[in-house]
Write a structure and sequence with these properties.
about 140 residues; alpha/beta; five-stranded mixed sheet; 5 helices; 5 strands
Amino acid sequence: MEIAIEEAKAASAEGEVPVGAVIVLNGKLLSAAHNMRQARKTATAHAEIIAIDKACALLGDWRLDECDIYVTVEPCFMCAGAILSARIKKVYFGAPEPKFGALVSNASIFSVPTLNHHPEIEYGFHREEIARLMKKFFRDRR
C-alpha cells in the first residue's frame, strides 16, 4: 500500500486526483500507476485501469487471476468492472469513497450472485493518511 500511496502523491503533484494502484503477483510488484485523466484527456485513465493494463502487458494475458490489487481509494464502478474482467483475486484499499465507491460505500458489486467472479476485499489500510491526502487535494483546488 505504501507504493500505491506514493503513486497517489505523484498524481496529486501532477494535478490529478490522488489515487494510486499497484498489482502484485506472489508478493512481487508487477505494476504501479496513478490517475492520469487530465494528462491523457480521457475519463478511463484511472489508476486501477492503467495498473491492470500494465500488468496484462507484462504477463501477456488478460487474466490476472493470481494477482492482488492495492488501491488507495475504494474503486468506482468502472474500475470494479475492470477488476472483475481481469479476474483479480483480491482487492485491498485504503479509504472508502462515499461518492463513487462500488465495493462497500454505494454498492457491493462483487457480491452480485450472477457474476462468475467474486474477488475478496479488505480495506482500511492507511485510511486516515489517504483521507487526508484526498481532502488536501480538493481543498487546495478550491
